Amino acid sequence: MTLDWSQLAALVLVRLEWTIFIYFLLVNSFYALLLLSAAWEMLKHTREVRGASRWRILGCRTAPSISILAPAHNEAATIKDSIHSILSLSYPSLEVVVVNDGSKDETLTVLTEHFTLVPIHPIYRRQIVTKPIRGLYRSRSHPNLLVVDKENGGKADALNVGLQMATGDLVCAIDADTLIEPDSLLRMVRPFLLSEDVLAAGGTIRVVNGSQVRGGRVVIPHPPRQPLAGFQVVEYIRAFLFGRLGWNRLGGNLIISGAFGLFRREAVIAIGGYAHDTVGEDMELVCRLRRQGYEGKGPQRVDFIPDPVAWTEVPGSWRVLGRQRDRWHRGLADTLWRHRRLVFNPRYGAMGLVVYPYFFFVELLAPVVEALGLCGLLAGLLTGAINLPFALLFFLVVYGYGVALSTFSLVLDEINFHRYGGLVDRLLLVLWTVLEPFGYRQLTVFWRLRGLVKFWRGRKDWGAMERRGFHSPEKSSTTLASDRVGG
Amino acid sequence: MDLTTILAWVLRGEIILLVAFLLLFFGHGVWLAWYRRRSYPLLVLARQALVTALEAEEIPNAERNQVAALSVRLQIRMFVSIAPSLGGVQRQRLAALAREMNLTTRATARCRSRFWWRRLQGARLFTLLGGGHSVMPPLFRDRHPAVRAQVAEWAIDYPSAVNIDSLLSLLSDPIGLCRFTAQDSLLRMGNVVIEPLVHYLAYHSGREVEAAVQVAEGLADPRFLAPALVLCRDESPRVRALAATLLGALGGSEGVEVLTSLLTDASPEVRAAAARTLGKVRHWPAAARLAGLLRDQTWIARQAAGLALRSLGAPGYLFLRRFCTDSDQFAADMAKQVLDLPEEMELAGSL
Prior knowledge:
The complex is a heterodimer of chains A (487) and B (351).
Chain A: H1 5-49, E1 66-72, H2 79-87, E2 94-101, H3 107-115, E3 117-120, E4 133-139, E5 145-150, H4 155-165, E6 170-174, E7 179-180, H5 184-188, H6 190-194, E8 198-207, E9 212-214, E10 217-220, H7 227-250, E11 260-264, H8 265-270, H9 281-295, E12 301-312, H10 318-338, H11 349-364, H12 366-383, H13 388-416, H14 423-435, H15 440-457, E13 466-467, E14 476-477
Parallel strand pairs in A: 1-2, 1-6, 2-5, 8-12
Antiparallel strand pairs in A: 3-4, 4-5, 6-11, 7-12, 8-11, 9-10, 13-14
Helix pairs in contact in A: 1-7, 1-12, 1-13, 7-13, 7-14, 9-10, 10-11, 10-15, 12-15, 13-14
Chain B: H1 3-55, H2 61-68, H3 72-82, H4 88-100, H5 103-111, H6 116-129, H7 145-154, H8 161-170, H9 176-189, H10 194-203, H11 207-219, H12 225-231, H13 237-250, H14 256-262, H15 268-280, H16 287-293, H17 299-312, H18 314-323, H19 329-339, H20 344-348
Helix pairs in contact in B: 1-2, 1-4, 5-6, 6-7, 7-9, 8-9, 9-11, 10-11, 10-12, 11-13, 12-13, 13-15, 14-15, 15-17, 16-17, 17-18, 17-19, 18-19
């Protein structure tokens, strides 16, 4: 039997679609496994912390000291409130290191005047090469506030300076515009007390858009009414909260959000700090920390803790969100490329055999596969190579299964945290969950593909971000050091 | 099976899943709203009754009934939220009321459960309400670290010899949380733990004493001097460094000879700790030895020596100035940096 070109093309198309169908069936099933793992971890965590007297740590002289690193670039408008909010966090031995990363506005002047900064000249060990430091200041009104003024070098450079200036046993890297809940550090320190093998821990990032914020605190959380921010709320709950929690049991996390993560300072310095030449410095750091741990047969655990919460503002415009997602995907591609030796390498245990392959075959390649699948499906339907039942089945497995899993993560969030009260809030969450696969997801596929192409071309720019701010409805446009970071 | 049948099955399955999840999602919200509406008024009344009961010498029946009207879960929640802010007689009355409500019986049962989370809940109840002398001590050897840590917290209010011994044995627990909690409890117990701790330090060494030396440093009693001097010769550099710091906390002239000898220790961590301590106790006769440490191979030892010389005052400054022109560039650099420190540094606290 001979096939002509059109028959051959149709056959190839059908086979390809079946392969992609099976790929998504496996991927979504793995997501289901991650969610089940997250549910188990959540149960264990709740049992451990329910009724625990976290506040006792406040009066404890043996608690590990924490230095908060807050890089700031042109943040004169918000820096005062942000630093006040950070200084009011509950922790017994807390140091705040603000790194002014070559701001061209009045950031340093605002800090100097408001916090009564005086120049100091500490002796510090320069273990990581950074851009030159112009001055060091300590606050007379808040002795635990240290301000470093340096030449602009990007977020990674600012964090590296902060790492060297900090004196805490643990360092907490945050974005200067992140709102951290007051008892978050008390919760976040727990894995470090439990095990010396823990090198880093990540907390939950929630979306602040739509919520009521007063005095630097989220007083009443609400899901946003704008679809774009609403879709991101669902994404954050599914992927950033329960996705990462699930990895605790399945081989450990590979990402700790740059907006809120706690690290052992010595361990980070020992591996040379944050990498300058990547747009995904947070993931790259965690990857390197864990890799070093495996290679040196030392500690390599990275835990995710669900209850310390930091609130962040997500992009409110399609253009800015596109730039963010494109940058995150470039960061992912870059990190995976740098650490390609890990893939299926038994020397790196679960990290090499499960975590890395997942990030490579699922997180990195999924947009390519999904774009191929959608194009193939369209072509197949138009040429008649694919019938309607298969197209519907494809849609149900790729998107319907996804909606079910997203709803399950809403259930987990509701049962464990019930942050969003009221019927309207719940209806909104369900609405964004159901609508997410129609248009939004395809756009994220496009942005991620664009990120891959840019990575291929070697582009490492960050792009500007626009933030509305927590207090004022007026739109302000600033380029923040904190905005130039992956998720 | 043809594609349409598979499609129907998948569709059915997904609809069932989705409906189930939505029912759970909204159902939980509805249940929560109902539960709050039903229990909150009762909880408010019970709280008021509890406040009245805590102020009275005898617990009035009306108040007792108000508290008893709550579900056990809410009773526990209420007692647990109030207990940490009470002390003395009121705490005793709260414990008595908890006994009347059978909460201590429940806590005892939980402490004997085969599930670790139930034992943990029981231990937490006893920590807050007091009591549990028969069931809590065996939990010092529980399989689960969270339970062991909780018992360590409970022991603060019961500084018996047996409990102190158990806490001391937790100082060498493999799990950090247990060591941390035991350290904190011993520090909060205060003077009563000094003698047992001196004994512990005298008969243990290596990793086993690291946490204990930190407790001794916090308590800073002169009785720790003898074991501290012995531990300065421990095989572990970390213990030697901690012991040097302990000598600094104790002060006095007895330890300075040992500290001066530690300036030539093989471990830079120990050399740095000894230098810091000599600076802290302002032992100026050691200035020349400290100045020699400015030529050390490691940065931490050079930094500690520089800052120690600075804290010695005039003799230290003399050596620092001399070393500014030293042939060893590293020593000269450190001396210059230390001399360059502005006075604000002292006010603001050193880095």
